[in-house]
Amino acid sequence: MQEKNELLRKLPKVDELLMVRGIQLVEQEYGHTTVLLAARNTVDELRAEILAGGRERIPSDTELAVQIAQEAQRMSSPTFRKVINATGVVLHTNLGRARLSEKAARAAYDVARGYSNLEYDIGRGQRGSRHSLVSSLLCELTGAEDAMVVNNNAAAVLLMLAAMAAGREVVVSRGELVEIGGSFRVPDIMTLSGAVLREVGTTNRTHLADYQRVIGEQTGALLKVHTSNFRVVGFTQEIELAAMVELGKSVGLPVLYDLGGGLLRPVEGVSIPGEPCVTESLKTGVDVVCFSGDKLLGGPQAGIVLGRREYIERLKKHPLARALRVDKMTLAALETTLLSYRDEDVALRQVPTLQMLAAPQDELMDKAKRLAALLDFAGGVSVVEEEGQVGGGTAPGHIIPAAAVAIAASVMEPERLETQLRLWEMPIVARISRDTLLLDVRTIDEDDFGTIAACLRQVLDKEPQA
Ligand SMILES: *Cc1c(COP(=O)(O)O)cnc(C)c1O
């Protein structure tokens, strides 16, 4: 106790620390306020260590200056940063969903760093519209008459309902009243849009006659929602889009379709059972469809709306359009992502989401072997065949073969290793299965293998030898 009090008395004052030689240089780099806060944190931490009995002496001024510099650097780094996704889940909602292609990321960077023709018609030298930037490309790729891009697909659904059916009823099957993520629920979005929900059928079965029965003067539109994050199995019946479109035509009502994930076009090796495809859906003659930019499309967060010109015009003119509009970096990344889609083979080569989903099992096993070889120093490292998933909210229950590097419990207790990897300066998010830590290589960039090896080496070096 005596010693602790002695040490606490000797604890340096923050003011004094700011006079230590070398601190001026740290201030030049990070600024006075940051260094002041860093010095306070350093002293606080030292005090806590003394009280916990973990200190026998006060570090020298030089040592403290180094600690302050490290703390200032930590405080000046963004908390929002890159992580390594070793879960194998390609569209991981918590880890930022789709990864952009190199070209798409660069396009966003370029317009972010400079001025751009966001709302400027270069040919005419006058004001232009941001809506026109990607709409003709979207139409070319999908065969739609017109297109519009908003902030995300939730915004697209909201705008679509508000512009097409505010004050009128929208008929939806009970089995399609989904909740996606924390707060996107179809009934709530409907209320917010000013449209009136008219549920038909039951959770597991809805027939065309159910729709027909409720259509009347008050009806504004028919809506189909892709149940992208759950699956009802067994005795079910959902009305095919084509049948709904036919019904809509016969009664003169627009048919709207929220596709959710939306694979833009068929791509060899990326067929996911039950996942709708944008071009195929449009072929049915559906009036308006919407889908996410950062699910199967593999682009930035965005909501893409395609459909008949008169309806898309109505959406563009709606007051909500301004509130939901998309940023220039998004448009740049989206256009460049879409440019990869003219040819299937180019899309597969350039769009990381497609590439990762299409990766064949033998290629993944080879990739896992290369990572395992780099981690071999740890002992207890092996390659295992696993089962993976496309995403949290995309293609539920669809299992794809996967390959992972397994680090046995004998190397380090799995929960502890999982934590250490996650808290690393470049966080590595892994999963544990059957008391083994798994690094699923489908979602790991080969360029990050070295980082993973360096991390594991340091984690094991720090570990007290058993
Ligand atoms: C994911 C999804 C949404 C929400 O899309 P965001 O781009 O996340 O806003 C809406 N509807 C369906 C059916 C979805 O799958």
What's the quick description here?
The chain is of the alpha/beta class and 466 residues long. The protein has 20 helices and 17 strands. It starts with a helix and ends with a helix.
Descriptors for this entry?
7-stranded mixed sheet, 17 strands, alpha/beta, 466 residues, globular, binds pyridoxal-5'-phosphate, single chain, 4-stranded antiparallel sheet, 16% strand, 43% helix
- From the helix content, strand content and strand pairing, which structural class follows? alpha/beta
Shape: globular
Mean pLDDT, rounded to whole units? 92
Largest sheet: 7 strands, mixed
Low-pLDDT residue spans: none
Number of helices: 20
- Kindly state the percentage of residues in helix: 40-55%
Provide an overview of this structure.
This protein has 466 residues and is α/β, with parallel strands linked by helices. Helix content is 43%, strand content 16%. The protein contains 20 helices and 17 strands. The strands form five sheets. Strands 4-12-11-10-9-5-8 form a seven-stranded mixed beta sheet, with helices on both faces. Strand 6 (179-180) and strand 7 form a beta hairpin. Helix 3 (23-30) packs across helix 4 (32-51) and helix 4 (32-51) packs across helix 5 (61-76). It is globular. Pyridoxal-5'-phosphate is lined by residues 152-154, 157, 180, 184, 225-226, 228, 258, 260-261, 292, 303, 393.
Secondary-structure blueprint of this entry?
Blueprint: H1 2-10, H2 14-17, H3 23-30, H4 32-51, H5 61-76, E1 84-85, H6 102-113, E2 120-121, E3 126-127, H7 132-142, E4 146-150, H8 153-165, E5 169-173, E6 179-180, E7 184-185, H9 186-193, E8 196-200, H10 208-214, E9 219-225, H11 241-251, E10 255-260, H12 278-283, E11 288-292, E12 303-307, H13 309-317, H14 320-323, H15 328-339, H16 344-350, H17 352-358, H18 361-374, E13 381-389, E14 399-407, H19 414-422, E15 428-429, E16 431-433, E17 436-440, H20 449-462
Parallel strand pairs: 1-15, 5-8, 5-9, 9-10, 10-11
Antiparallel strand pairs: 2-3, 4-12, 6-7, 11-12, 13-14, 14-17, 16-17
Helix pairs in contact: 3-4, 4-5, 6-15, 7-15, 8-9, 16-17
The chain binds pyridoxal-5'-phosphate (PLP).
